[in-house]
């Protein structure tokens, strides 16, 4: 028999006897990893290499019954619960010391209905895996800009992506959620049933239950879209950012233009624009002509391509394993003063893996009422991120200090607004402002569905 020492929600330790553990392990279909198991270190690893926690158990769920059994077992012993989808979270909320990790990454079922243009998808999928199934029919929904992001975390936090100008955020395209509650029951939340929960799950994060499945609205993306990167020397960063500000001030819904200050694979500091057009290719070429004509780029890789190729375009920025520390916020404008801050710090990227991306939020994503979903920051704006990444643990202090110094200069322009999916682990004070006026209602929904705050390993919203 296996005896487990685990952590209760009050922080105390509890010993779970072998009989109880063996009964639980026999009840689930997936593998259960403990510190004595082969494969435990791989099972506990998450995307951000800075996060190194040792859960008492990692349950690799194979289906909804495994999730239900895991929640009921954890509740019976009053254990800390962490929930993992794609593990692509800078704060490392997909794990905990001494707790039970309910790992959904083995749940990868997809059922596409090309007639209604909908897809039922389980929560363990990455966007690459989801797109592989929907693109057979030429269909997609707004997904993350890095394809190894999990569909669950991105959707629950809102979901900025390549189709947001034309089709809204990912959360705007969810028809229903299948949810295992804090009591270990399975319910479905949609506009007509558990409507308050349906509202909260569209941007409120993992606070209200474990979402095991999503029904998404899909959209025609055709055989080809326009996509690619245009790269300029970093010396032209200020000039390029002012141009970027102008072309994203009122873009057509079909046009997505992101920007990043970064280091090229050859080791050169560069300023890049990532271009996407979701519509007629001839119209798209006309829409991006001024972007291609600007300046003297080092490389222009924009071309017609399959939607899946564009979704993979930035994957090297999101590989699993490097150490990461982020700062992020929404900017209402890209003023010359803001541009000066960006350019001055980007001229000294102290890690070649570090990048500073900017995402323009516009179009359909901004035409949703701020109180229609939990994601309430529905104005035309730029999501800006200082994404510091490195490999050597000895470099932690220097990298974190550089990131904080950069952010301290930028924060007065960004204010307090932030995309909840980009909050770092050391920023709990920013959670309330991430939801703005919707925070009070979210606390009430939390009280209705999780009054004991069972699901608290997240950007936590306490029950009212």
Structure description:
By secondary structure, this protein is an alpha+beta fold. The protein has 15 helices and 21 strands. It has helices at 18-27, 40-44, 64-76, 127-134, 151-157, 164-167, 195-201, 237-247, 281-287, 289-293, 307-311, 336-346, 396-414, 431-435, 439-449, and strands at 4-7, 13-16, 32-33, 57-60, 81-84, 100-103, 110-113, 118-122, 139-140, 174-180, 186-190, 210-217, 219-220, 225-233, 255-263, 269-277, 299-300, 303-305, 323-331, 356-361, 381-390. The strands form five sheets. Strands 14, 15, 16, 17, 18, 19, 20 and 21 form an eight-stranded antiparallel sheet that branches. Strands 7-8-12-10-11 form a five-stranded antiparallel sheet. α8 (237-247) crosses α12 and α12 packs antiparallel against α13.
Main beta-sheet strand count, sense and barrel state: 8 strands, antiparallel
Kindly state the mean pLDDT as a whole number? Answer: 96
CATH class of the largest domain: Alpha Beta
**Percentage of residues in DSSP E strands:** 15-25%
Number of domains: 3
Distance between the termini: 42 Å
Shape: globular
Catalogue the unreliable spans: none
CATH topology of the largest domain: Vanillyl-alcohol Oxidase, Chain A, domain 3
């Amino acid at each position: 028999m296996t005896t487990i020492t685990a952590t209760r929600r009050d922080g105390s330790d509890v010993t779970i006897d072998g009989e109880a553990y063996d009964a639980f392990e026999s009840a689930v279909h997936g593998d259960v990893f403990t510190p004595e198991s082969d494969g435990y270190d791989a099972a506990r690893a998450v995307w951000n290499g800075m996060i190194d926690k040792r859960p008492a158990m990692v349950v690799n769920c194979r289906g909804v019954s495994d999730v239900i059994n895991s929640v009921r077992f954890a509740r019976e012993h009053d254990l800390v619960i962490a929930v993992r989808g794609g593990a692509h979270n800078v704060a490392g909320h997909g794990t905990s010391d001494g707790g039970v990790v309910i790992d959904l990454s083995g749940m990868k079922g997809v059922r596409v209905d090309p007639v209604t243009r909908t897809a039922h998808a389980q929560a363990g999928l990455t966007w690459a895996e989801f797109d592989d199934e929907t693109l057979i029919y030429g269909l997609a929904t707004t997904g993350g800009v890095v394809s190894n992001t999990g569909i669950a975390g991105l959707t629950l936090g809102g979901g900025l992506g390549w189709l947001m100008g034309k089709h809204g955020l990912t959360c705007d395209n969810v028809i229903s959620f299948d949810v295992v509650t804090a009591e270990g029951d399975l319910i479905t939340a949609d506009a007509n049933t558990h409507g308050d929960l349906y509202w909260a799950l569209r941007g409120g994060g993992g606070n209200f239950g474990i979402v095991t499945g999503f029904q998404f609205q899909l959209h025609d993306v055709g055989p080809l879209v326009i996509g690619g990167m245009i790269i300029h020397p970093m010396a032209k960063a200020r000039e390029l950012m002012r141009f970027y500000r102008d072309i994203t001030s009122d873009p057509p819904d079909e046009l997505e233009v992101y920007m990043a200050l970064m280091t090229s694979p050859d080791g050169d500091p560069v300023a890049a624009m990532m271009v996407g057009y979701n519509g007629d290719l001839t119209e798209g070429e006309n829409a991006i002509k001024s972007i291609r004509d600007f300046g003297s780029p080092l490389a222009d890789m924009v071309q017609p391509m399959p939607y899946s190729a564009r979704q993979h375009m930035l994957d090297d920025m999101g590989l699993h394993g490097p150490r990461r520390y982020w700062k992020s916020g929404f900017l209402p404008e890209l003023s010359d003063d803001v541009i000066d801050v960006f350019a001055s710090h980007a001229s000294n990227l102290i890690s070649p893996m570090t990048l500073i991306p900017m995402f323009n939020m516009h179009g359909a994503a901004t035409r949703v009422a701020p109180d229609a979903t939990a994601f309430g920051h529905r104005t035309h704006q730029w999501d800006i991120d200082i994404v510091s990444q490195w490999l050597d643990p000895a470099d932690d202090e220097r990298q974190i200090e550089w990131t904080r110094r950069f952010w301290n200069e930028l924060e007065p322009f960004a204010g307090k607004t932030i995309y909840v999916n980009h909050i770092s682990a050391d920023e709990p004070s920013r959670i309330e402002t991430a939801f703005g006026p919707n925070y009070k209602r979210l606390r009430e929904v939390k009280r209705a569905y999780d009054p004991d705050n069972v699901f608290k390993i997240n950007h936590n919203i306490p029950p009212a």
